[in-house]
Amino acid sequence: MAHMPVAERRAQLIAATSRVIGREGVAGASTRRIAEEAGVPLGLLHYSFGTKEELFVAVIDDAVDRTYQLIAERAAAPGSGLGRAVTDYLETFRHWALAAPEAMVTQYALLTWMLRTQDGHAEAARRAYRRYLDGLLPVLAAAATEREHDVDLHKLARLAVATADGLILQLITIGPEAVGAAELPEIADGLVHGARPAFNRNGIGIEGNA
């Protein structure tokens, strides 16, 4: 077998693990099955990752890293508005869910596994969601206009991440008809509206009505 840098070998095993879990679930993802999928000796898997659990956590971390990259690539132009930024964010996940449903199934299967284990892996699941929020916040801050200064960006980020979860689950379960791309701007505008202070949502705005 040709020599491969450790980083590349780890990436190969992460990708193989994601495919196996997407098809067979966490229970079916034995180290032997993952090694077969990756086309490497079992000993090489254990050399690259100390335990199967460490490999599972690496799969989630890799998914978060790729999400960061996708969000950065599709980030709305500075000052283009929060509605546009949230729409782009939801469009990114809609496209990803339809293009790679197995990858999404893998993420949710692993997150559920992390929450059910007794070995402290729940913290890895919480860390993943904190990183999703941390990655979205600067995108929102850059996109916000002066007229959106009253929007609570932390709340908007939480709402957008929660909405993306529901969107993904419906898309991988039902298909593209679950939520159409044309509906995303309306959803995004609703989230932005919900992240404004209550008095501003009720028409007693800071700008113009004060």
From TrEMBL:
DNA-binding region (UniProt annotation): 30-49
Keyword DNA-binding: yes
Span of domain HTH tetR-type: 7-67
Assigned keywords, A-Z: DNA-binding
Taxonomy, superkingdom: Bacteria
InterPro entries tied to this protein: Homeodomain-like_sf, HTH-type_TetR-like_transc_reg, HTH_TetR
Keyword Membrane: no
The name this protein goes by in its record: TetR/AcrR family transcriptional regulator
Originating species: Pseudonocardia eucalypti
Pfam assignment, any one: TetR_N
